[in-house]
Amino acid sequence: MAIKYRKHELHPESILIRDFDGEVSTNEIIESWEYLISENLINDSTKGVINNISGCALLMDMEGFKVVLNYMKQQDILKKVKLAVICDDPKTIVFPALGERTENELRIKPFSTMNAAVNWVLD
To answer: In the chain, fewer beta carbons within 10 Å around the N or the C end?
Structure first.
């Protein structure tokens, strides 16, 4: 899988970071959420998950995006945390931007820097 996990250096209990690398598919994104949930890596002390998709090739279209959102909306734990997405490509920023505007059940927001994402999660 091309998604690696780490805790934020300064806020290890509050922020989990997912670093995407190489090509990442819709199925891999869902499998990643399933792993985080099953291993209790997202819990009551988690304020947010920062998804760093800078530099990755996101293999997703609008249909795949809808599948991912529908999966996420079924997970109560994901509704409780902020979901920041760091993007550096106009082709991929469309997905978190749409999520921010259209999904009231999830708190999704795109960012261009890690610092901005961290500040939003902790705010």
So the answer is: C
Name which of 47, 67, 70, 71 is nearest 59 in CA terms.
Answer: 67
Chain-centroid distance of CA 45 in Å reads 17
pTM over 0.90: yes
At 83, which helix (H) or strand (E)?
Answer: strand 82-86
Rg (CA), the chain: 13
User: What count of other Cβ atoms lies within 10 Å of the Cβ of residue 76?
Assistant: 9
Distance between CA atoms of 47 and 57, rounded to whole angstroms?
27
Domains of the chain (ranges, CATH numbers): 3-122 (3.30.750.24)
Instruction: For residue range 45-102, list pLDDT tens digits in order.
Output: 999 999 999 989 999 999 999 999 999 999 999 999 999 999 998 888 999 999 999 9
